[in-house]
Amino acid sequence: AALPGPAPADWVQAPLDRDVRAVLVGFDEHFSYAKLCQALQYLMRGGPDCLLVGTNRDHRLPLEGGAAIPGTGCLVKAVETAAQREAIIVGKPNRFMFDCVAREFELDPSRTIMVGDRLDTDILMGNNCNLTTLLTLTGVTTLDEVRGHQESDCPARNRLVPDFYVDSIADLLEVLGE
Question: Which Pfam families match (predicted)?
Fold first, then answer.
């Protein structure tokens, strides 16, 4: 989407679909200022009845060799800042998606394990859903971070501690093969 004109006064005049009742922010490699303007216009027009929904708050996505790219959380934060309100997050670490899947497939949380590489999304979601949690150290989290949370007296930090960890997901595959 392009901005509809050369001046800010033109940008707020972009046509809006009157049936839109929510703005969903997910991973978008084509995120732009024009989309940010459009999201804000929908949210302002709809007020509190227009939902602001984010898929997740991952701030960074790790790549091989220590490189990273901005995650969806950066886009969610941009829209939240413009709209001056907080998004409803339907992905990790909130339990919304797990509850949907658990109902559909009749999952038993006591027989379900959450495997992930992030404490603040994967492991926290697993703990929020009363699942066994397994951290793989091939992502953004280090064992020193886990130990820091484990040794803390802060209940919020303790919720970031996994039940188990492996250096690599390959280690888990070896155990499952036995």
Answer: Hydrolase_like
